[in-house]
Amino acid sequence: MLLADLTSPQVRDLDKNLPVLIPIAAHEQHGAHLPLFTDSYLLGEIVRRTEATRSAEVLITPLQWLGNSHHHRDFPGALSAQPRMYLDLLQGMVNNLLDDGFHRILILNGHGGNDIPGQQAMFEIRQQQRQRSDLLLLFSSYWKLRPTEVESARGFQQTEMGHACEWETSMMLQIAPHLVGNYREATAVEPNGSFLPAYRAWVTQDRSAVGHIGCPAFASSEKGEYLFTLFATGVAALIDRMLCWNGHSWRD
Description:
Layout: H1 8-12, E1 20-24, H2 38-54, E2 59-60, H3 83-99, E3 104-109, H4 115-128, E4 136-141, H5 166-175, H6 204-207, H7 221-244
Parallel strand pairs: 1-2, 1-3, 3-4
């Protein structure tokens, strides 16, 4: 069910064991062929599909479109919260829900730049609430919840999520093809890391002068539908695990 559609008394009367899903995404550049709101469009569709199949089993907050996108600020149009401000924003949303009595909370992420601050926000809240044993505070990006790897037989060139890549372009072709530009002539930009296994700090222009990372030219709407189904299935499975949690143990 959607929190935005409920009245305050209805929220007060809800079973507080109900899992709460907080979708977070971004507004930032996606190369020359995808719109700035891509991450929010894609996560919004995954949330829509999740709500359609799990409506009575999960409470979904409005999508938070402002993300931590400072690494994209070399490209015009990116709107970003300062990283430390973003930590406070996420913690504020979660603490609002804790104050209302909910205690099974998932931040579902649709933008890679939110990973580190999102996990940190949940980690800090757990330390602040260390006396409690009834909290289930989860963070995950939707593409990490897929139940299986993508099937190479479907023609995928990528095996992992990139940026304005084969995967994201395919999903945009499925839900909003009129917003997709000339992806067929976009050159492949390898996602290879540097100095692995160490983590190297970066901004987007370090890795891609054109703004995308991956292989957009191989995208198709059919691949997009397949990916949406895969990712929504993974999100629903995690909600089921949240519902089945016994309310106090470390393991599900």
